[in-house]
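Suppose a classmate hands you a notebook page containing two proteins, each written out with its sequence and a corresponding row of structure tokens. How would you begin to make sense of it? This section walks through that situation. The first entry is reproduced here exactly as it would appear on such a page.
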Amino acid sequence: MTTEHIRNFSIIAHIDHGKSTLADRMLELTGLIDERDKKEQLLDNMELERERGITIKASAVTMPYTYEGKEYMLNLIDTPGHVDFHYEVSRALAACEGALLVVDASQGVEAQTVANAYLAMETDTELLGVINKVDLASAQPERVAEEIEHILGIRKNECFKISAKTGVGVADLLDAIVAFLPPPEDNSDKPAAALIFDSHCDDYRGVICYVRVFAGELKVKQKIKLMGVDRSYQISELGKFTPEMTPTDKLGTGEVGYVIANIKQLADVTIGDTITDENAPAAEPLVGYKPPMQMVFSDFYPGNNTDYPKLRIAFDKLALNDSSFSFVPQSSPALGFGFRCGFLGLLHMEIIQERLERENDIDVIQTAPTVSYEIVTNDGKTKRIDSPSQLPDMAYVEELREPFVKLEIITGKDSIGAIMKLADDRRCKLLKTDYLSPARVMLEYKAPLAEIVYDFYDLLKGISRGYATMDYEFTAFEKSNLVKIDILVNKIKVDALSLIVHRDNAAAKGRRIIIRLRRAIPRHQFEIPLQIAIGGKIIARETIKAFRKDVTAKLYGGDVTRKMKVLKRQKEGKKRMKSIGSVQIPQKAFMSILDTSE
């Protein structure tokens, strides 16, 4: 098939605006699934995706379509909508020439709609505006079309009004994809070059690479080279997703599919790498992807029934399937050997933890997440640290910087005052206010990431009764008046519990933390002191009382000195136990320090 008859497109939208449902209707209309195989969120094949009702991984599918008597190949990549999976969206757009920007007819343009639209514009992707859910009683398609024109510059009379649930307007949209979205560039006469935009590991067939061919063609039994690692393999199977994996003899320019080449070394495959012909290689690799910038970090240690090597293998497999996640070995005096892991956000971290436990049947102990910081040392060197434990003595630090983001909040006008107060309490600085319509407004803030990454979104939803949405984008590291809080459990500093906070509220926050820790750590046979230290100075203390056995119960009669002697012996025994006993710190203790409620 010539490139003129191929269309590669993505569906992008805010979370829950109907991307996966629209993909389902397209699969039905193009005849890929029949009534018997019909189910909701067909492309969301991960158990976790179906449970939560969200898309976590971008997924690809090839659909045949007839338009004006000619056969076309439509390659669709369905993407996630949550801010934490922004990187999945950018990868999908790099493999496409066009995108459908879906907006809910009742909710209108939301924060992530704007972010995804700008992402598409940066990559020169052709956009088609789609207003979904026009069948709802609360739908206001005309108002939403005006919002799209005002904010994104897509003309309101060029937006397609559909209902992905009932199928109204979806057939016209398929015609528009063929008519208005550009075909891939014809590079069929050039050396083979295919971009790896995703991959996963199969225990029997090795690494399966999801590719988009930009030049030349790939054939079965062809000798290929992975340009990033300079390793050669032979293709054993090629295929397309229809939506199941369907083998084919070759993949031509502009086509999307998968490559199996008996790749057993997981480290050989990198998302964004280029596959080329070993005998006639491309002159240079494809542009690939900008490396993702992890913003949230947490330590993972083996839990019950799990050992370190098993955890390492599980992480290797996950990193292959999710390139926005990173990990490095880490050790802690309190918890042993584990890994320091980087994530794009808190939901991303939650998903990785659940996938670790479900897909690999392992238990993990996870420390409270922190953001990364930058330090400028006395000799002028700049260094990035991902954990408070990596912070050197402040005598050697000239400047401590924290990450700031551009935060966009879209909300109804009724909750503006309460949201502004919440933002002010979290050290956010208002940059501008933009009314999208008489009833909806977009607030733009400069915000410290550490203050908004944990529970800000939940509080925002509560204040606005579920109507407000937010999106943030990293801008820069900036100098702040920060200080490190150390937590001592039984007079031993536990690095995994350390925090970096703003100096103004460090003392108050420290006191709240040890009160929560006192409730979260169970009582032992000996007394456990909990202390908060800032720069070597103890500022607060709480004590977890010991279990007490009534050793005088069996005594009767006699002088009081008998009782005193037994109590003194018990006290000596507890003192000895305290000096050699280790404190068991449960998972909930690590997470309790994130709780911001009074």
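The notebook's second entry, a different protein, reads as follows.
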Amino acid sequence: MTSRLLLVEPSATMRYVLENYAQSLGFEVVAIGDYNKAEEALHSQFRSYGDDFAGVLLGWSIVPDDSFDTLINTLESTNFTDLPVVVMSTDMRAETRAWVAGREHTAVLQWKEYQSVDELLQKLLQKPTDEQDTFSAKFDNSDINVLIVDDSVSIRFALRDLFELQGYRVSVASGHDEAIATAQQSSFDIGVLDFYLQDGTGDALCRKLIADPSTGNIACAILTGTYADHIIKRSLRAGAVECMFKNESSELLLARIDALSRFVRQRKKLGAEQRRLDELVDTLAGATMVIGANDTISYASRQASSLLGFDNRANLLGLNAAQIVDIRKLRESSAGKFRTQWRDASQGLVNVVYRQIMLEQSNDIVLNFKVLAGAVTPALTNPVSHSANDIVNAMQFPQSSLAFVSALKAYPESLKDSTESVSLLLIDTFASEGAGEMLPSHKIDGLAGDIETALKNVYKRENHVARLGANRYGFLLRHTTQPQAFLLTRKIMQICNAIDTGEKSVSISCTGCLYGVSSNKDKTATQLLRLTSQGLDVVNQRTKNQALLLDLRRMLPVYASTANEKS
């Protein structure tokens, strides 16, 4: 006997298309364009033998409609809960998906994919066996792996069931420690973290997940029962990309997860495209490096990183190009082919042949190069035993900073049995006048001596302050606690901003980067200076009067937003 379908769709065009397609599949179709008449047809189907509907093709209304609401309430009633329904939707909005997820024997299909209705009808109309669930997952979100962390058993498993009905892969954890262990064992795309946990808070968990390289790609959403501003701020500052509230409707919660899923998929797509680009560059162009307008390395192929001795390409990206190449020579040269010496990861000299291309619109420099075989000159042969003079010369610091670098080099060994700690602080200063315009170079040079004197008066430990460049200064801060180092950093930068230039129209601003020497004893003085310089370059690209706390990967504003803000 031919299966009989009820098709409900107000649009005559869409109704005609789907009616003809369903008939071509061998179904008998009763097509109705009015929701009230469709409800009447459902109630009257049992009056004649053979008039029963095997299923319903329901065009979902995207505008408020009382008759539509009455129809879906009928489909949810006891008499019709076993009737298979395929929802035809134009936008797959969250409320549509939530209704589909909450009703048995129901699926959803976009109108543009109407020809897939045959497969859905076959699944919905077949009689399930005891071992088989006819339609357990109604949406294909299996590419998204979700971790739910909540110490409430009921909330934890309610969220799991809701997300699994949407086709997500879901794991659960009851607290901070279990979440860390679970996240390290598997790769998760989204983490839904309760803010108040018995063994911690959601923002602390979020920060730890993001900081761990093995779990750092997870997109965290904080789940809380309150709309308190301080909780939202703490969550967002910790790196969460979303805040969700426990009293929200399921439709809104799913809409937020949908948005996060789109973000994750886009990030995965960009990552795949980046890897494909890297393969193409390595195959076609070989060792290639791009130096941006701000003189930092904005791109490097895997081959370029390898030839320059960088095991991890991330250590090369964002590096000040002057540490590798003669940036002044590159800026003064036009496009062409050249032979010269560069420095590699250990600051040894390598002979290279390179081709230079200038991108006029962006002022970027593209370098395609080869390292000549056997051409490594170990200017600094043993990274651990570099002299302070080697470091000063290699990093192009003034000779006046030699005592400062010697003190930095000696600290890891001298503090072995001490309760004190040491951190390296680098500060860049900027002078501007009028409407924020930077001063010309000759005026800045005239102020440099005044700034250096003022900064040395701030921190009077011998050899603990030095000028490391035209506008860069280094500090070795001794402290007993980490927050004390943050406060010292903020205080030094505030004093820097308050330096009297002698001209009312001229103001000083600064940027900073703080990196623990005591907590990174495995790194040489060269590495400490290079990493801190990279962090400072990152801050310079963002904004003035902020410092990057490199150990914590967070920004510290010179002037706190509130008087009682804790560092």
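A careful reader of the second entry would note: Confidence is low (pLDDT under 50) at residues 129-136, 375-385, 562-567.
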